Amino acid sequence: MKKAKQRVREMKRINRTGFTLIETIVAFAIIAIILVVALAGFNTITTIGNKAQAWNEADQDIETLIASGTGYTEYKDAALEFTITDSGNNPLVIKIEGRILTYDKGGKQLNVFQPNE
Q: Are 76 and 98 within 8 A, CB to CB?
């Protein structure tokens, strides 16, 4: 009788190798959560990269248009004026004269302030 009980115990030990279904499901759930977080981060990084590339291309286009002096549809004389006060409330007025250039590119209108030299 004792030998039969020992055999049953040994068989239970042998059959306990590996993972249970619950352990496997929990492991897959943890991996899925980690993947969702990682993919969301990757998507954010990709979006930021695309926006940076678009800004860089727009900046290059603007620099090219301004350097060529052509491509704008209209311009208006304009001035930017800033007033700064120091600790004694003495105003300092900074005025920058220039013009506003309007560019049409790809159906979009872009206004750029170009200071006088």
A: no
Strand duo 108-115 + 91-105: pairing? antiparallel
Closest CA to 97 of 76, 111, 77: 77
Q: Give pLDDT, residue 16.
A: 60
- Listed as ranges, residues in the chain with pLDDT below 50 are none
Q: Cα separation of 17 and 37, whole Å?
A: 32
Overall pTM > 0.85: no
For residues 66 and 117, what is the distance between their CA atoms, to the nearest angstrom?
13
Count of other CB atoms within 10 angstroms of residue 99: 16
pLDDT score at 29: 96
CB 96 within 8 A of CB 80: yes
Which residues in 82-94 are b (16+ Cβ under 10 Å) and which e? eeeeeeeeeeeee
